[in-house]
Amino acid sequence: MFNSLTQIGLPLALILIMTGVGMSLRPADFSRVFAAPKGFLLGAAAQLLLLPVTAIAVIALFGLQAELAIGLFILALCPGGTTSNLYSYLSKADVGLSVSLTAVVGFITPFTIPLLAAWAIGYYGGAESNLQLPVMQTWLTLMIVSVLPVLVGMLLRAKWPVFAKAAEPVISKFSIIVLLLLIISISVDLGDDLWRFIAKAGPAALTLNLVTMLFGYLLGKYLLQQERQARTICLEVGLQNGTLALLITTGILQSSAMSIAPSVYSLLMFGSASLFALWARRSRVS
């Protein structure tokens, strides 16, 4: 059951989820980058550079090794999707910036994830590890399950906007169900080792979530001097695409242990993002 879910069910579900992401995008979301480049460049740099560097520091701080370290690092390579867009809306942030970051960075990461994940496996796995990431297979998989469905979703929105608008919230709920089913399946597959891995990876996953949210907010606050954009960057950096990370750790690398950090993180981020949204809604937007 676990293999069927990760090898067949997860890629198909992710294709549907990313099609939903495409339905939420318009060509204007890409052109907006050039109209207000400062916020976008800071957000993209935070996602593509700050997150992996922070993950390396957190891994060293908590002494994570082998699969647990690799899983946390791979998670840091997977930017948030529609979840960050939703929480940007709930937090009275700059939703346009959030959507632009989702659109553009989502087309960049299929090229960065395979290379950086392969480095992490070599560095944290050690010489004795049998783990290997097929870089070309990973790149093709990411293109098929993330980039192409987004383009299809955008085409569907352009051709049938009413259908796209109606389908978008349904797909968002479906993505949460898929993530929960994955986490349950991974937990069952790990058996007695589950709590031992959670005890090791849980504090590191929570630290990565909170520290990156804080860094993202402070960067936006002091470099952009705009509260709404600061909130957006906080959420874009602090909310990762756990489903995409689990596709790599379970579907390609077939490692339940490597999936612990992304699973724990995915559960915790909803709590931290909800608390941030509650605070943001009660705070004045300058």
Automatic annotation (TrEMBL):
<dbReference type="InterPro" id="IPR038770">
    <property type="entry name" value="Na+/solute_symporter_sf"/>
</dbReference>
<feature type="transmembrane region" description="Helical">
    <location>
        <begin position="40"/>
        <end position="62"/>
    </location>
</feature>
<dbReference type="GO" id="GO:0016020">
    <property type="term" value="C:membrane"/>
</dbReference>
<feature type="transmembrane region" description="Helical">
    <location>
        <begin position="6"/>
        <end position="28"/>
    </location>
</feature>
<protein>
    <submittedName>
        <fullName>Bile acid:Na+ symporter, BASS family</fullName>
    </submittedName>
</protein>
<dbReference type="InterPro" id="IPR002657">
    <property type="entry name" value="BilAc:Na_symport/Acr3"/>
</dbReference>
<dbReference type="InterPro" id="IPR004710">
    <property type="entry name" value="Bilac:Na_transpt"/>
</dbReference>
<feature type="transmembrane region" description="Helical">
    <location>
        <begin position="99"/>
        <end position="124"/>
    </location>
</feature>
<feature type="transmembrane region" description="Helical">
    <location>
        <begin position="194"/>
        <end position="220"/>
    </location>
</feature>
<feature type="transmembrane region" description="Helical">
    <location>
        <begin position="68"/>
        <end position="87"/>
    </location>
</feature>
<feature type="transmembrane region" description="Helical">
    <location>
        <begin position="259"/>
        <end position="280"/>
    </location>
</feature>
<dbReference type="Pfam" id="PF01758">
    <property type="entry name" value="SBF"/>
</dbReference>
<keyword id="KW-0812">Transmembrane</keyword>
<feature type="transmembrane region" description="Helical">
    <location>
        <begin position="170"/>
        <end position="188"/>
    </location>
</feature>
<keyword id="KW-0472">Membrane</keyword>
<feature type="transmembrane region" description="Helical">
    <location>
        <begin position="232"/>
        <end position="253"/>
    </location>
</feature>
<feature type="transmembrane region" description="Helical">
    <location>
        <begin position="136"/>
        <end position="158"/>
    </location>
</feature>
<keyword id="KW-1133">Transmembrane helix</keyword>
